[in-house]
């Protein structure tokens, strides 16, 4: 599925006739010199915020516009999403969205203050990144296979820390539990930081987080990486297998970052922004920094991120309905 999205993105850019030179020279957009706000739905310091701040200065150069990052955390990204949905559709207010963009309609069907798939239109599927399954030093096993053996031998003994009920790392962990036939307790926390602390204090055994979040603790030896949830190993963790390599060939889970604008934003404006993000994300200084943190640059067209958001919604909505998983 991921390769399909990538292929569609390249074809989509070509079909739209977007070139960096033509799109960035759009007169209709260039006459507005007010700041562009990248609205991040989390506090400073998380993966989405880090990525936005790496992108921001180079995006500003390519657009010839001031670009600022604004953090509007709260309500499982609903505050930021609502703010962008209600903003003027002029391309000046953009949502730096997360996988929660697709998962929130699963968790809160019919209860969101906006319509995820009608109130926004995609600018680019910017980045994706797998989750690293990290374990505390005291947890048995040096890889996922060994941990699963231990967990199945002692049901209800071990636990995993998530960033909250209904988060991707909650759903991905439950998907792996189903595939492996193991029973470990879910302990939700209020973010990646508390989940990591739960491992460091050996209150919980494993967690599913981005490499960017776990990198310093892995490098210091405080957390053991057991597996990676994507379809290939991470460059910085060449000896850590994927979940697929660990005996679960159909398992794959990615966090992702997409850029969205209000739904009524004109095509010319979207095309200009799409081209600017593509050029920014593929600028070596930006791409190298992002890849060092475990991000994979996608830089697609807007339709591809809209399609991907729908696909992810369907995947997790079906999973919750099939399993009867409680998201409370």
Structure report:
The protein is of the alpha/beta class. It has 13 helices and 10 strands. Strands 1, 2, 3, 4, 5, 6, 7, 8, 9 and 10 form a 10-stranded mixed sheet that branches. The radius of gyration is 20 Å and the shape is globular. It starts with a helix and ends in a 5-residue tail after the last helix. The model is unreliable at 1-31 (pLDDT under 50).
Secondary-structure blueprint of this entry?
Layout: H1 2-16, H2 20-24, H3 27-30, E1 36-40, H4 47-63, E2 67-71, H5 78-85, E3 93-97, H6 100-107, E4 120-136, H7 144-153, E5 159-162, H8 168-180, E6 185-188, H9 192-200, E7 206-210, H10 211-219, E8 223-228, E9 254-262, H11 267-281, H12 284-292, E10 296-297, H13 302-323
Helix pairs in contact: 1-13, 4-11, 6-13
């Amino acid at each position: 599925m991921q390769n399909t999205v990538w292929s569609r993105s390249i074809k989509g850019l070509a079909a739209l006739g977007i070139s960096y030179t033509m799109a960035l020279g759009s007169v209709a957009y260039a006459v507005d010199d007010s700041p562009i706000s990248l609205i991040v739905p989390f506090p400073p310091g998380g993966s989405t915020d880090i990525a936005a701040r790496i992108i921001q200065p180079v995006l500003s150069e390519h657009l010839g516009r001031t670009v600022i990052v604004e953090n509007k955390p709260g309500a499982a990204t609903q505050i930021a999403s609502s703010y962008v949905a209600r903003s003027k559709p002029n391309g000046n207010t953009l949502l730096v969205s997360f996988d929660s963009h697709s998962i929130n309609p699963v968790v809160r069907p019919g209860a969101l203050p906006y319509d995820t798939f009608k109130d926004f239109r995609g600018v680019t599927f910017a980045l994706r990144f797998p989750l690293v399954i990290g374990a505390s030093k005291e947890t048995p096993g040096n890889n996922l296979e060994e941990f699963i053996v231990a967990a199945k031998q002692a049901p209800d003994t071990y636990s995993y820390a998530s960033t909250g009920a209904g988060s991707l790392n909650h759903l991905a962990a439950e998907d792996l539990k189903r595939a492996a036939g193991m029973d470990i307790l879910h302990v939700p926390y209020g973010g990646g930081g508390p989940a990591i602390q739960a491992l460091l204090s050996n209150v919980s055994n494993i967690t599913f987080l981005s490499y960017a979040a776990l990198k310093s603790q892995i490098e210091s030896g405080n957390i053991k990486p057991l597996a990676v949830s994507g379809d290939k190993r991470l460059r910085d963790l060449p000896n850590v297998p994927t979940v697929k390599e660990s005996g679960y060939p159909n398992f794959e889970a990615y966090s992702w970052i997409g850029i969205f604008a209000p739904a009524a934003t004109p095509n010319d404006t979207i095309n200009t922004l799409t081209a600017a993000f593509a050029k920014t994300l593929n600028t070596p200084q930006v791409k190298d920094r992002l890849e060092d943190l475990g991000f994979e640059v996608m830089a697609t067209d807007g339709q591809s991120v809209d399609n991907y958001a729908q696909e992810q919604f369907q995947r997790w909505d079906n999973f919750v309905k099939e399993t009867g998983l409680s998201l409370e």
